[in-house]
From TrEMBL:
GO-annotated molecular function: glutaminyl-peptide cyclotransferase activity; zinc ion binding
Keywords (A to Z) from UniProt: Acyltransferase, Transferase
PANTHER family documented for this protein: GLUTAMINYL-PEPTIDE CYCLOTRANSFERASE, GLUTAMINYL-PEPTIDE CYCLOTRANSFERASE-RELATED
Name of the protein in its database record: Peptidase M28-like protein
Taxonomy, superkingdom: Bacteria
Gene3D superfamilies listed in its UniProt record: Zn peptidases (3.40.630.10)
Peptidase M28 domain boundaries: 95-308
Length: 314
């Protein structure tokens, strides 16, 4: 994942939810998101070690993800392929898709990557060391697994597809499109031929302590409507400290780019950024470990997702 631009551009909404948001929280009963469960799912992924393509941890974590999702989803698809990484390196890729209510025509795509950056290239001391990827990868997947657990207990009325993508973080800035290789493969070869969803939501770095989620520029370009609606729900639920309406000019090369441009599904990115547009300080460093994960952040993201899926999806 790399920063594409820090262009100065007008924000989608420079006000706050009280003055500019007319969203009313639905009276539909929405299950409670369990942040402790999501925290445990994060820790479990980290316990396998760095989930780097072509390592035992990749296979071990993939097997666990598949075995965890299969009893919960109506259908689970596993895409095993080989993608071409930087310097034409062949990288094994394992995408995992959990489908809920497969017959429903109205659908939401929720996705997160589960692999880990091969080295801590942003670390101040040793850029060759490996990192746990607790926030950058594991946190988003953990939220989706907890959603799957809740969906199994009480089915939503719409179709939901959980896409866990691999080989997102093995790219280099010098090679265009070398990031998000699992998502690029899925976008060209969806688990269901002709797959469509009303829109998609990408989770990336959604568990860090004190995280703030700004309205990322590429998301605004392709999916401003559903993103604004999601931010409205989050603010009505009391999570305005996390979900900020103002833009910070950052456009991120992340999985949503390829869902938007290849699969043509409007998709927005929930990703922790600083007001300057930079990533969180632990990004791609050894500090991205369980010490940065905060159940309160997982709760803010997870409960908003629950509210949207069960009560206000469209």
């Amino acid at each position: 994942m790399a920063l594409l631009t820090f262009a100065c551009q007008p924000s989608a909404n420079n006000g706050n939810s009280d003055s500019e948001d007319n969203t009313t929280i639905s009276a539909v009963k929405v299950p409670a998101f369990n942040a402790d469960s999501a925290y445990a799912y994060t820790a479990k992924q980290v316990s396998f070690g760095p989930r780097i393509p072509n390592t035992p941890a990749q296979e071990q974590c993939a097997d666990w993800l598949i075995q965890t999702l299969r009893p919960l989803a109506d259908t689970v698809y596993v895409q095993r392929t080989t993608v071409t990484g930087p310097q034409k390196t062949a990288l094994p890729c394992i995408n995992i898709i959990g489908v809920f209510n497969p017959a429903a025509t109205q659908r939401i795509l929720l996705l997160a990557h589960w692999d880990t950056r091969p080295h801590a290239d942003q670390d101040a001391f040793d850029k060759t060391k490996k990192l746990d990827g607790a926030d950058d990868g594991a946190s988003g997947v953990a939220v989706l697994l907890e959603l799957a657990r809740q969906f199994h207990r009480e089915k939503p009325n719409i179709g939901v597809d959980l896409l866990l993508t691999d080989v997102e973080d093995s790219g280099v800035s010098e090679e265009e499109n070398s990031f998000c290789l699992g998502t690029q493969y899925w976008a060209h070869h969806p688990h269901v031929p002709g797959y469509k969803a009303n829109y998609g939501i990408l989770l990336d770095m959604v568990g860090g302590r004190g995280s703030q989620f700004y309205m990322e520029a590429t998301s605004q370009q392709y999916a401003l409507g559903p993103m604004k609606a999601f931010w409205d729900v989050a603010n009505k639920l009391g999570y305005s400290d996390y979900f900020r309406y103002e833009g910070n000019g950052a456009a991120i090369t992340d999985d949503h780019v390829y869902v938007n441009t290849i699969a043509h599904i409007p998709t927005f990115d929930i990703i922790a950024l600083q007001p300057s547009g930079s990533f969180a300080p632990h990004w791609h460093t050894e500090n991205d470990n369980m010490s940065v994960i905060d159940p309160r952040t997982l709760q803010a993201v997870g409960q908003t997702l629950m509210q949207v899926v069960y009560a206000q999806p469209f």
